[in-house]
Structure formats: C-alpha cells, structure tokens
Batch of 2 targets.
Target 1
Amino acid sequence: MIKIHEKEEFEKMRKAGKLAATLLYELGKQTKPGITTLDLDKFAQEFIEKHNTKSACFGYTGGGKTPFPGYICTCVNHVICHAFGTNQVLNEGDIISIDVTLIVDGYHGDTCATFAVGKISNEAQKLIDATKHAMEVGIMAAQPGNHFGDIGYSIEQLMKNKYNNQYSIVEDYCGHGIGTTFHAPPQIEHTGFAGTSEEIKPGMFFTVEPMINAGTHETRLLKDGWTVITKDYRLSAQFEHTIGITENGPEIFTQL
Ligand code: MF3
Ligand code: CO
Ligand code: CO
C-alpha cells in the first residue's frame, strides 16, 4: 500500500525538506581539504540541535542493523552510501556524497549531493554531473499517471544515450516512500522498464536517489555493517531529492 497524503502534509514536507536542504547546503560549503568526515558530522549535530530537530539517521536500525552512529552519511570516493563520520581526512581531489535526513514535526526530508573537495579531475566532475542529471530525469518521469518503472527506465535511457553506457547504475540500493516514516513502500528502482510497477498518483511522497558508479554496479558491504563501497574501488556519486506528486507533476521538497 502506497500512502496518499493530504494537503497539510505537503506543507509539513516543505518544512522538513527545506531544513534538510539548508543543512546539506551548509555542509557542502565545509567540504574543504583537511576537514574530517567526523567534523562534518559534528557540524550537522550542532545544526540539528540548534534547530531543535532530529536526525533520522542517528540510531537508525533499518533492517535489524546496529544503530547508525552518525547524524549524516558521508561517503568519500569509492564509498557508495551509508558511511558514518570518522577521522578520515578529506584530500584535494576527493569527492564526497553527503546524505542528510531530518525529522521536522514528524515528517522526513531526505536529500543527498556529491561535492568536490578542492580541485577534482574532469573524470570525477563528469561523474558528478551525470549523476545529478540522472536524478533530474528520474524526477521528471515522476508524473501522475506514469508508473514507477518509468523512473528507472528514464535513468537507464539517459545513461545509454547521453553517456554511452560508460557508467553503471547501482541496483542494490533504491529510493523509497517517505513521510511520517523514513523508509516506506514502494522501493524506487533506478533501473527499470517503462510502464511497469504501480501507477504514480497525486499525494504520493517518495525519494529519487540514483547512485552512479564509474565502474561496476556491484557493491560490497563492509564489516562495520553499514558502509557500502564499489566492488572495484572506482568512484561513486549520488544525488537525492524527496518529492511529492501533485496533479501538475512532481514537487521537490528538499530545495532551498
Ligand atoms: N538517507 C539514506 C536514504 O537515502 C538512508 C541512510 S540510513 C543511515 O535512504 F542509517 F545510514 F543513515
Ligand atoms: Co533516501
Ligand atoms: Co538519503
């Protein structure tokens, strides 16, 4: 069952989304050589406490895991998703995906972007641009009357036609329904077939959050139980927005 939300709930999602987007923007400005991923996590913790809000990640046990120890996810270079802050220092040329999920008045705003640390290679910048583009076409496919399969299909077509299949799309981790719960049905796959899966309807809230890899799409979970990396250690990027479906199309909640 995919929940259909009321008008008032759109307003709550706008608030949560905007605050998450603000924190992500502030974190993006901190991603300089010399800073550690734990510094970023502490910055997030302070922001969250100052705004009297909550991190959905901190203490999260999704799927029966050990509680997540961080306030945000900070994923450097070949790390795909779900890494927590450590004493790892950011170096010039690194890329870092930062994923923020805040709970404001019971509603979740979930957003991620990949940032450059200092000057990065053309190759890394191209991967970042392609990943942002993938999220954008995925969101544009989220029109009422379309189907969830259209989202993944549009991303796959983009990767084929515009980027000549030079990148791969992660399949082991997906977008998700969201609202008063962090991860609700359905799973939003970033690959797929046009017209398949359930119909997208006004009032649905979900994320589009493609992870795009420079090499293989295959993933490996580290022994810490959370950190997910690319099997070939090549770069991975991610962008994510939380959106709500209106009669006129998708509304992006997680923007400034
Ligand atoms: N924000 C991630 C998502 O997009 C989930 C992070 S869960 C955590 O769904 F526990 F790793 F933080
Ligand atoms: Co998400
Ligand atoms: Co997220």
Target 2
Amino acid sequence: MATTPVAVAESTVPTLSHWIDGRPVEVPPEGTAPVFDPATGAVIARVPRGGAAEVDLAVIAAQRAFPAWRDMPLIARSHIFFAYRELVYRHREDLARLISRDHGKTFPDALGEVLRGLETIEFACGLPVHLAGINTPGVSTNVDTHTLRQPLGVAVGITPFNFPVMVPMWIYPIAMACGNTFVWKPSSHTPGATQLQAELWKEAGLPAGVFNVVYGGREAVSALLVHPGVDAIQFVGSTPVGRHVYETGTAHGKRVGAYTAAKNAMVVLPDADMEFTADSAVASGYGSAGERCMAQTLVIGVGDAADRLRPLMEERIQRLKIGPGLDPDVDMGPIYSAEHRASIVEWIDKGVAEGAELVADGRRFSRPDHPDGFFLGATLFDHVTPAMEIYQEEIFGPVLGIVRVATYDEALALVNGHKYGNGTAIFTTDGGAGRRFELEVDVPMIGINIPIPVPAGYLSFGGTRGSAFGDLKMRGEDGIRFFTQEKMVTLRWPAPGRREKLSLVFPGNS
Ligand code: NAD
C-alpha cells in the first residue's frame, strides 16, 4: 500500500539542544534550522545555529573540566570507556534508526556504521597501554631517559553529514582517552544521533564538561578555529572547507588534521573474477547512495575487462531496490538533502554534455508513494575520460564511471595522478599483480579484491593529496600521537661523593 508522507506542523517538531557542561542547553526557536527526513521531505526536527557565544561556553566548560580529567588515574578513565562501550552496544539499533532517519541510508548500513565506530571506542578502552612511554635506562653514565605522553587540553571534532556516528567515534574516543576534553561540532543535516551519544557518556559516568556539543555551521566553526582555548582540531568533510580549517587553525597555533574529499578508483585486471567484481563495484558505488568517502566511483577496466564487467553491472543496477532507508529489503535510500540531489542531477547532465555514454540514468527514478522524498536512481557512465570533470571531481552520489585503458601501467598512472588520493582497490586473481599494486600505488588505503578498504577501527585512517591536510592520520597510533604531546625526560640522581668536576663542555653520552 502506498504511504503518503504526513506533513508535520513545524511548531510540533522537537528542537535539539547544544550539550554543554554535562547538560542540554536550550535555544530559542528563531536560532534554529530545519532537519529533513530525506525519504519524505518533511521537517522532523529543528537544530540550533550556534555561534561564538555557544562555542565560548563549551570551550570554557571543557577547559574547566580538563585538569581533573587529565589527572584521573588511567584505569578509572578506562572504566568509563568500558561503560560507554557497553551502552553504545546496547543502544546500537537506536543509534542506527536515528542515522537512517536523518541521512536516508538503509538501517543495516547504519547499524554497520555504529559497529565500525564501536571498534575505535574498544581501542580507546586500552588507553593505559596506548599512553605508555619508553623507558631507556643508562643512556649515559648514571643517566636514564623516559618519555611521557600528555594531553594537549581542549580538542575539537568537526564532522560531516554522511557518518553522523562512526566518524565522530573515530575522533572523540581517542582525544578523550588521551586525557583531553572535547567539543564536537556535528553536521546540522544529520544531528539526530548526537544527543543520544552525549546522554550515554553521562550515563557511563563521564564528568561534566569533558564532552560538549555545539551545533551550527560556518559561524560556529569560525569561532572554534580562532578560540584561544582550543588546542587541537580534527575535521572531516569537503576539501575547500577542510583546507580552510587547516590553514586558519594552524595559523592560530592549533594542531589540525583535516580529512577531506575523494574520487576513488578501482582497477580491474582482465583476469579478475568478473561476477565478484561486479558485485563489489555496485556495492561500493551505490551503497549509502554513493555518499561515502571510501566509495569507488571510478572503475578503471584494463584491456577487455570493462567489456565483460559492464553487462554484469547493468544487471545488478536494474535489480537495486531504492526506497526509504528504514523500509526492509531496500538496497539504497534517498539522497540526504534536496540541494545535494539537485547538484548530483547537474553532474549527470554535465557527464552527458561532456560526451560520456550514459548507460543507466538515475534521473528517471521516482517513488510515486514518496513524491517529496529526495530519491535518485543509480547512474552508470561508460567511456569516461580523465579530461572530463565527472572524472576529476567528487560527485558524492550514486554515480559510477567506467574508464577504459590498455595496460596496468596506464591504470596505475591514472590513480597516482588524480588530485585526490583517499582509497583505491585492485581486482585480480594474480597475487603478483596485487603485490605490485600495493607497492606502487600512491594512495594510503588499498583494497585487494576489497571494494571499500576502510581499515579496522584500531588502525589509522586517512588519505593524501587533496584528500587530507596535516601530517598524521586519524585513529590508531597516529590518533594517539595527534592528541598528545610527547615529553622526553633525561634524568640522573647524583650520588653523594660521586660528583663530577665542573665542565663547560657539551656533554657527550659516555
Ligand atoms: P562539509 O565540508 O560541507 O561539512 C563538514 C563540516 O564542516 C560540517 O560540520 C559543516 O557544518 C561544516 N561546514 C560546512 N561548510 C562550512 C563552511 N563554509 N565553513 C565552516 N564550516 C563549514 O562536508 P559534508 O557535505 O558534510 O560531507 C561530505 C564531504 O565529507 C565529502 O567531501 C566527503 O568526501 C567528505 N568525507 C571525508 C571523509 C574522510 O575521511 N576523508 C569521511 C567522510 C566524509
């Protein structure tokens, strides 16, 4: 039976609250923006548009909470992380429902997101081990050295719409495990799961002020970038905003890492298992409606690979079920916003104008039972070339392009020459070719017969070229390094009667 969307009167929708110093901070309705259900187009909530005043409150709360959090015994801090891990796991379906409702991705996909975020919380539970230093006795006569890892102070996370739970969970557990306090600026498009995370931290026993949330857009971000109380920022989002965050934040003395846009390519060699490769390409390109920074959006077929792969991909595209993310049996949900849907349609128009062959046209798709939803079908282009803008730019929608080359070397040169370098993959049954690719490709996250090579949550994550700014990756060992300052202590305890003579010589280690 067709379901007509029920328009909700704007005055009855809930207004979300900032979370500062361990409690919600209410906002007058005039300072809010609408949140849409992308499956119906209806307004489902209102989100505060925070600015300098709210940022200041949150940073001051975080600064106040910092000394006690930094000095809390490591095992006591770790116990709070274990409690939070249990609560997130218990509420995993609640979080997934909120993600799916706001973003449009399918419920199982949203659940996968929560579980991949959980991995990093589990990594953070081992914080006493991760924060261990190095102790080197005897670096010189009666002289020992050890290192300390100490928190920086107030850390900030600025996160995108497309992973409203997983990406923040790749940032805040590491920042807080290292002893920093935290201010999170989530995306205003998908805020539904934010407050639940704040409430679960409180239930886990986190002291007030250690975890704060300020909603907002450019104004809130601008205030964070220059606030003298902010020490470190990790940003995840588009490249122009990430570059601005990196340049402004570092110019104001902050440690910044920005993880940004992508145009990932999977190379398909003629010896690949084509049925398996077609499944992988379609899953990667159209999962989450292509709104993943690790989606493979270019398929580079070597030799005759594209001739054999394309019909298999077409069959699969025709079978995709597109509908509301919370409906069972749906493969792909709507686009997250009406504006973004319109921009993807413009990209498809552009691809046609640039001369790519339009094999499957997602613009034709509609859901008559959801006439105001932001739906789009899966789009496939063939004969895409590096001269085309649809090859060069991130579209961030369900649009895949096939590129044809004669040799492996040509394919490798394309991947290494792209302005973005986030993830890549090779599909082959030849182990030697796979090994060569992992050594020769200039992209840090590599899949060999894996289409979405997101490393496990206890390893580092990040790209290169236009896909990342800063020297360290996020999460894992790099995450610990990013959110701490290392101190090196060189020490001796002079024994009575063993004092050396006064010397002005630069001391050698002997
Ligand atoms: P976005 O850049 O529009 O927003 C990211 C964050 O910046 C949000 O919190 C937003 O409120 C804020 N923001 C937006 N415009 C701003 C401005 N002008 N000034 C200051 N702050 C601003 O990104 P998005 O659309 O939410 O997310 C999609 C992008 O994120 C894609 O480019 C995708 O590739 C990228 N992404 C990258 C990774 C990665 O790890 N490399 C992961 C997920 C998403």
